[in-house]
Amino acid sequence: MKKIISFLALAVAIFLAGCGDSTTTQKDSITKIKERGFIRIGVFSDKPPFGFVDSNGKNQGYDIYLAKRIAKDLLGDENKIKFELVEAASRVEFLVADKVDVILANFTVTPERKEIVDFALPYMKVALGVVSPSGDVVSDISQLKDKKLIVNKGTTADAYFTKNHPEIKLIKFDQNTETFAALLDGRGAALAHDNTLLFAWVKENQGFNIGIQTLGDQDYIAPAVNKGNKVLLDWINNEIIKLEEENFFHKAYDETLKNIYSDDIKPEAVVVEGSKI
């Protein structure tokens, strides 16, 4: 009987510990990062000009520009980052499994994702777009009926067409390189993706047009942390607000996007400064 009582007491103690204040559990998240000596940030390797690995094996892009500033302001050195390369469908998994501290992989805020992770304030605008061959431009969704549309798994494009247009057959890939290769090979009539990415892609790939430049709602891209990690979330939110004082995200645009977009796209069509939407 004493053994049973002891076991029950232990079980209750474990239960109560697990039900404790989540802030207590998470309050050391920044301390842990500092003790570790680097921050783990999930980024894309194949989504230029936002997150990609260059010919020298270095991470580059608009998301990377922010990641380095976070490391600098949190740890005093922009190089104190361990970049974890993620795919669109694995971003949530990397956070939930504690493989990264922050996701900065062009992560669009959606109600479904907000149930699983916590998003910080936005730093970029985005909507869906559809690109297709210039000789057979898709300028209206109705043109895709009974045709194949190429998308990335786990993206807003995947979710949008799955929910709203079940009559369109989707061809899905994990990586952007696979997705755009399929379009170049003619395996689909068109490709749906973030319009901010498509604006850059068509400039480097002649023979393709963005027949639908804006589709669905105006969405926003933001950093994401594990659900309940309020300390790190608050730090990132304060950082984004503070960076407005120096027009940081417009500088990031000039450094990483302007040469590609040229004068065709205005910074205000992409940039969110100080979370002001």
From TrEMBL:
Keywords: Signal, Transport. Residues 1-17 form the signal peptide. One of its GO terms (cellular component) is extracellular region. Pfam families: SBP_bac_3. The keyword Lipid metabolism does not apply. Coiled coil: none annotated. Residues 38-260 form the Solute-binding protein family 3/N-terminal domain. PROSITE patterns: PROKAR_LIPOPROTEIN. Gene3D superfamilies: Periplasmic binding protein-like II (3.40.190.10). InterPro entries: Bact_solute-bind_prot3, Solute-binding_3/MltF_N. GO terms for biological process: amino acid transport. Belongs to the bacterial solute-binding protein 3 family. This is Amino acid ABC transporter, periplasmic cysteine-binding protein. It comes from Campylobacter pinnipediorum subsp. caledonicus. The gene is cjaA.
